[in-house]
Amino acid sequence: MYPNTKKAIILAIILIIPTVSFAKDHKPISKETENVCLAKALYYEARGEPELGKKAVAKIVLNRKNHKKFPKTICKVINQVNYIKGRKLCQFSWVCDRQRIDTASNSWEQAKFLSSSILSNKIKLPNFAPNVLFFKSVHSRQRFGKGYRFVSRVGKSNFYSKNIS
Fold first, then answer.
1. How far apart are CA 54 and CA 156, in angstroms?
2. Fewest CB atoms within 10 Å of the CB: 59, 61, 74, 95?
């Protein structure tokens, strides 16, 4: 390899790679995009629930967004994926299932309206503590491990806290 070529490659690596890696992580997410992500969570997780159940789900998403162990945007919280022993596990199963929204349905319109109202602070959310980060359907067979504490039942969902530092 020619000495000038080697210098050019090193210079390209120094100049280009940091830009690419940081640009991806720090790309701002619009309020509208965040609204759609929260609306999807409300649609899939609480579609048949009364308004209080939908608000409780929104509160969990926002608690996660504000917790240091979770991603810092609503969309990243919703789309968070973990790999355990090579198995892909989504925080919200519908994300992995790639389900489609019936955008003509009243449920979708309600989810978008509620999400927008929540994000513009027009609606008060349940007063869950910041460590209330988990919920599951009362019909779910999923079991939480040690350290999870039942906090409340709202509609058809149970809400849990766990101290994770």
1. 11
2. 95
